[in-house]
Amino acid sequence: MPNELASRLEPIVAAAVTTAGFDLDSLEVQQAGRRQLVKVVVDSDDGVGLDEVAEVSRTVSAALDENEHVLASAYTLEVTSPGLDRPLTQPRHWRRARFRLVRITPAEGAEYVARVGPAGDRSVRVLADGRLKDVSYQSVAKAVVEVEFKQPPADELKLLTAQEPGRTEAETQGEEQK
């Protein structure tokens, strides 16, 4: 029942979250005694602050109240942003992790740590072991952001911003000369 309920609630919650200017990352509905626990995880390219979580919570709550026939019972709403340990599963997750260290477990081969660069629709450019590499999302079994307590080295950031994916060095250098 909760999974079916989550499927029916998703368009309602997604519309409310989008109206508030955020992306719906996940929606989960669980039975909690006589009440339903509605867990909503929201994200944004600019991150999500505490005040923004409160704003989204009010917007989603109003949408759920307007559609109380779908929920058909009392509920507790929990709105949060994704944790640091959230796997990078969509291109937008990779875009939001730009310049962060990520532990990548490929579908084939050994796990490695790389710094994230520009992310496209099908692949992301990473810096691993001092070399730039384009990694297709399909080739990644799992990727998670690594906690880092210091600023990334400037030379790594420069390498990651020097050339966007899908462009040749000649194109990039031609623009730098203009």
Structure description:
With 178 residues, this protein is of the alpha+beta class. It has two domains: 79 residues, Cation efflux protein, cytoplasmic domain (Alpha-Beta Plaits, 2-Layer Sandwich), CATH 3.30.70; 73 residues, Roll (SH3 type barrels). It has six helices and eight strands. The strands form two sheets. It has a five-stranded antiparallel sheet. The longest helix is centred in the first third of the chain and has 18 residues. The chain is elongated and about 55 Å long. The C terminus is likely disordered.
Properties at a glance:
single chain; 178 residues; alpha+beta; Alpha-Beta Plaits; SH3 type barrels; 2 domains; 32% strand; disordered C terminus; RimP_N_sf; RimP_N; Ribosome maturation factor RimP; cytoplasm; ribosome biogenesis
CATH class of the largest domain: Alpha Beta
How many domain modules?
A: 2
The strands making up the biggest β-sheet line up spatially as: 7-6-5-4-8
Large-scale geometry: elongated
Tally of helical runs: 6
Annotated CATH architecture of the largest domain: 2-Layer Sandwich
Mean pLDDT: 86
Q: Mind describing the biggest β-sheet? A: 5 strands, antiparallel
**Rg, Å, rounded:** 20 Å
Strand content: 25-35%
Order of helices and strands: HEEHHEHEEEEEHH
Level of helix content? 25-40%
Residue windows where pLDDT falls under 50 for at least 5 positions: 167-178
Tally of extended strands? 8
Ends distance: 61 Å
CATH fold-level name of the largest domain: Alpha-Beta Plaits
Task: Classify the secondary structure makeup into a structural class.
Answer: alpha+beta
CATH homologous superfamily heading of the largest domain: Cation efflux protein, cytoplasmic domain
